[in-house]
Fold:
Amino acid sequence: MTDDLAPEARGRVERLLSLARTRDRYADYDVAAAEERLRDRLAARARRAAPAVLVAWSGAWTEPAPGAPDADRAWWDLTVMSLAVLRAPDAPHDLDRFIRDRSADRTGARVFACLLHLADRGDGARFWWQFAAGAGDGTAEYCLFLDHSCRGEYQDAAFWCGQLTRHGFAPDRVWGDRAAVSAAVPRLPAPAAVHIHEHLDPDLGAIPLPEPPLVQDLRDLAAAAS
Structure:
């Protein structure tokens, strides 16, 4: 996808993002404490196991429940969930439809967001998870809950926890037992960044967009992991 967002696609993106946008609840936010949490998260991430080792947590999925979830466990769950999304049989088709529909498909947006997460492009991943969540995708809501949790953004995590609770989302019911999923989805290498480009929107800022060859990249990555 080399063209910029079409006007109708841009309008839909803005509308769906507005449905997923959290309110500003940081008037009295402790910035120093937040920075300390982020430093802790970065240090913990640097200490994680080598890339060949995928699973540090072998128990159940992190449940959407009140209270601050463990940030490191949330990061591992987000990675396992992203791998599961990409290994789903329909993932290449969903990504292809997302490109052909000019970024207007919620399932394809979720697939692309998970690709971005594994490529360590967290801001872009969050943008497209928000798009998919605004269109009612429960897995995207769960990914946002995990994403904010592992970043120490607990108020935003609580917002998505409330959304998941209201919608009755249960990760094991949708994706199966976590231990079984993690055993079935070995780590994939990062997707080819050359097939991801950024569109600079005057209102939304930099938006990562997939190009058509990324669909074949996804097929190749899944085949290599098998």
The two ends are 27 Å apart (CA to CA). The first strand starts at residue 196 and ends at 201. Residues 39 and 149 are 14 Å apart (CA to CA).
